[in-house]
Design a protein that fits this description.
Layout lengths: L1 H18 L5 E7 L1 H21 L12 E8 L13 H13 L9 E2 L15 E2 L2 H21 L1 H5 L5 E7 L7 H10 L8 E7 L19 H14 L4
Parallel strand pairs: 1-2, 2-5, 5-6
Antiparallel strand pairs: 3-4
């Protein structure tokens, strides 16, 4: 259930904020499905921080580091219609996901080389479970586009201090235009807030785990940490 995963992210951010309350600040980052999770979880994170400020939370939970914002790499905020199987196949697979949710059948493959660091064994590899694929398809083809149209993105993101998105213009899974539509709908907390978008020429969906080709001299993580360092410097000025 996607909403359950979002709650886990919010709870994790809450716990880490309390554990490292003396830190200067933090940002939430995510790639692909993780990017979509962060984009939804930020609403809960901001709500909890507002509660701490207005005193509706216990005193011992009122001390938090600054929240710099969110950074998303190829977030799953849309889907290329060409990447979706024919409607009868999707219908059959969704029905099958209720009977065998953990089975991977005609679903995307998570390649072992996606692990970060490459030697990690914590990352899932192999065909996605049917339940995961069904959840992600509903999210990218229905929920996100409908939220943009209905104006729900503005409500969810209210109070966001900054947003940074990195996308590849050759992403074969997530259309760049879908992410741009979502990006344009995101408000910021003040005139001092920042919305930044880096479009990597020639990069596909998996750019975050490989060195960029062509004219790029940096990895996607170089861009990411430049953003994080810029946000963090404001606490030391």
């Amino acid at each position: 259930n996607f909403d359950d995963l979002v709650k886990h992210v919010v709870e994790f951010a809450q716990q880490m904020s309390g554990k490292f309350s003396r830190s200067k600040g933090f940002a939430m980052c995510g790639c692909s499905l993780g990017g979509a999770l962060v984009s939804f979880a930020v609403g809960g994170i901001l709500a909890k921080r507002r509660n701490s400020i207005n005193g509706s939370m216990p005193p011992e939970q009122n001390e938090y580091p600054d929240f710099y914002g969110i950074a998303l790499l190829a977030p799953s905020l849309g889907v290329n219609p060409g990447a979706i199987p024919p409607f009868p196949v999707v219908t059959a697979l969704k029905a099958l996901s209720f009977c065998m949710p953990s089975r991977g059948f005609m679903t995307p493959i998570e390649h072992p080389t996606y692990a970060c660091p490459p030697t990690s064994t914590r990352n899932y590899s192999g065909h996605w479970p049917l339940s995961t694929s069904s959840m992600l398809l509903d999210l990218t083809s229905n929920r996100v586009p409908n939220d943009v149209i209905a104006g729900n993105v503005k409500q969810t993101m209210e109070g966001l201090p900054s947003l940074y998105v990195i996308m590849g213009d050759k992403d074969e899974i997530i259309p760049l235009q879908s992410v741009l539509d979502w990006f344009d709908a995101v408000p910021l907390s003040s005139d001092n807030g920042e919305k930044m978008l880096t479009v990597l020429e020639g990069a596909g969906h998996g750019f975050f785990h490989e060195r960029l080709k062509g004219s790029h001299k940096k990895t996607a993580f170089d861009y990411l940490f430049e953003y994080l360092n810029t946000r963090a410097k404001k606490d030391f000025e």
